[in-house]
């Protein structure tokens, strides 16, 4: 058995070009990749972090933002413990699409999923979305909120560490079924220390979202 306490699946979604791949690369490899292409379908990376002396393995799924991959990427929502919905603070259209992404989440993800809204590219000088606008959206939809810059490595570590902390607490409090089986989308190396949202698929009950409605932080 591998040496970790919990394995969590974290899935990034959001419009093409908002910086999902850069956030994942920054966190897992510590770099800001120069001019890379759009994600095709889905990609994943693994990073183990330490939370209160325990090793927590994060399996981070980076999905393609382009519409044509939507049916592939949707199938990854259901086994996610956390969904990170990313928009670009310098692009109003990426923010305007958030309600569509929320509908997708409600349709395809577990109602127990931890939902995080991320406003990326805070380093840009042509910001269109003030912090308060993102905060307000997250608040209204019971999501955590944080602003990041993958380029400047601002809040990226914090984003993933806070998710790992929160998921660890949720598992310990019985929010997820501890020993439920791994979904069919997992790679072969997934060990037995895995917890999954027990309530999958379309059975969304609005009230269940309240359990995930806290803030991580906003950079101001
Ligand atoms: N200024 C700035 N640019 C960023 C940041 N993050 C990403 N970018 C740029 O935004 C563009 C798109 O980044 P990606 O990470 O490929 O975006 P994506 O969301 O993964 O896109 P898809 O794979 O098509 O869904 C690239 O040119 C990045 O260099 C950031 O924090 N600041």
TrEMBL record:
It catalyses: GTP + H2O = GDP + phosphate + H(+). Its EC number is 3.6.5.2. InterPro entries: P-loop_NTPase, Rab, Small_GTP-bd, Small_GTPase. It is found in: Cytoplasmic vesicle, Autophagosome membrane; Golgi apparatus, cis-Golgi network; Golgi apparatus, trans-Golgi network membrane; Lysosome. One of its GO terms (molecular function) is G protein activity. Its cofactor is Mg(2+). Residues 192-205 have a biased composition (Polar residues). SMART domains: RAB (SM00175), RAN (SM00176), RAS (SM00173), RHO (SM00174). Residues 182-206 are annotated as: Disordered. It comes from the Eukaryota. Belongs to the small GTPase superfamily. Rab family. The small GTPases Rab are key regulators of intracellular membrane trafficking, from the formation of transport vesicles to their fusion with membranes. Rabs cycle between an inactive GDP-bound form and an active GTP-bound form that is able to recruit to membranes different sets of downstream effectors directly responsible for vesicle formation, movement, tethering and fusion. RAB30 is required for maintaining the structural integrity of the Golgi apparatus, possibly by mediating interactions with cytoplasmic scaffolding proteins. This is Ras-related protein Rab-30. It comes from Meganyctiphanes norvegica.
């Amino acid at each position: 058995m591998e040496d970790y306490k919990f394995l969590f699946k974290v899935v990034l979604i959001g419009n093409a070009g908002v910086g999902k791949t850069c956030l994942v690369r920054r966190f897992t490899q510590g770099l800001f990749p120069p001019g890379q292409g759009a994600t095709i379908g889905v990609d994943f990376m693994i990073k183990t972090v330490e939370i209160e002396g325990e090793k927590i393995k994060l399996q981070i799924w980076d999905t393609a933002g382009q519409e044509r991959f939507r049916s592939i990427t949707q199938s990854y929502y259901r086994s996610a413990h956390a969904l990170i919905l990313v928009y670009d603070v310098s692009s109003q259209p990426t923010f305007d699409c958030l309600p569509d992404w929320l509908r997708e989440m409600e349709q395809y993800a577990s109602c127990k999923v931890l939902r995080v809204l991320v406003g990326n590219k805070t380093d840009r000088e042509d910001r269109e979305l003030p912090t308060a606008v993102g905060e307000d959206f997250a608040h209204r939809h019971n999501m955590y909120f944080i602003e990041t810059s993958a380029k400047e490595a601002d809040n990226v570590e914090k984003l993933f560490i806070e998710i790992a902390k929160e998921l660890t607490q949720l598992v310990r409090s019985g929010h997820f079924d501890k020993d439920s089986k791994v979904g069919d989308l997992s790679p072969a190396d997934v060990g037995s220390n895995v917890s999954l949202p027990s309530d999958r698929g379309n059975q969304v009950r609005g009230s269940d979202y309240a359990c995930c409605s806290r803030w991580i932080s906003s950079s101001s």
